[in-house]
Amino acid sequence: SGINAEYGYYYTNNLRMAPVARGKKSKRVVTKYTLDCTHPAEDSILDPADFVTYLSSRVKVAGKTGNLGDNIIITKEKNTVALSADIPLSKRYLKYLTKKYLKKNNLRDWLRVVASNKNSFELRYFQVDNEDEADE
C-alpha cells in the first residue's frame, strides 16, 4: 500500500510532471539592444562603423564566430549601434564585447560602459575630479 505508517508520510509511484505543450512552435522573441557612442564619436576617438564590424566578427552564435546569419542583425544609426537578435543573447555578453573592443583600442582608461536603461548601454567618460586645482 501507499501508506508508510512507520514514518507517517504517503508516497506514490505515479508521480506526474507538469504538462508540456507539444506541437506548438514558440514564437520568436526578438531582443533589441542599443549602444550609444555619441560622446566618443563626436570627439572622434571611436568610430561606430569600426565597432559594428568588430561586433559582427566577434559575436558567437552556437559557439562559433562569424555565424550571425539572420539571427542577429547589427546596424549603425548615426552614433548609435543597434543590435537585434531573435536567439537568446545576454546584455552582459554585449557589455563584455564592448569592453574588449575598448581595451583593444586603448580606450578603456577613458571610457566606461554604463547601462542607461533596461536594454541599452552608453559609453561615458570617467568623471575626473580635479582635486589638485582646489588645493592651490
What does this structure look like?
The structure is a single chain. The model has no long low-confidence stretch (mean pLDDT 84). This protein has a five-stranded mixed beta sheet. 26% of the residues lie in helices and 29% in strands. With 136 residues, it is α+β, with helices and mostly antiparallel strands. It has helices spanning 38-42, 48-58, 91-104, 131-135; strands at 3-4, 9-10, 31-36, 60-61, 64-65, 72-77, 80-85, 111-117, 120-125. The protein has four helices and nine strands, in the order E-E-E-H-H-E-E-E-E-H-E-E-H.
Describe the structure concisely for a colleague:
The protein contains 4 helices and 9 strands. With 136 residues, it is α+β, with helices and mostly antiparallel strands. The model has no long low-confidence stretch (mean pLDDT 84).
Chart the SSEs and their pairings.
Layout: E1 3-4, E2 9-10, E3 31-36, H1 38-42, H2 48-58, E4 60-61, E5 64-65, E6 72-77, E7 80-85, H3 91-104, E8 111-117, E9 120-125, H4 131-135
Parallel strand pairs: 3-9
Antiparallel strand pairs: 1-2, 3-7, 4-5, 6-7, 8-9
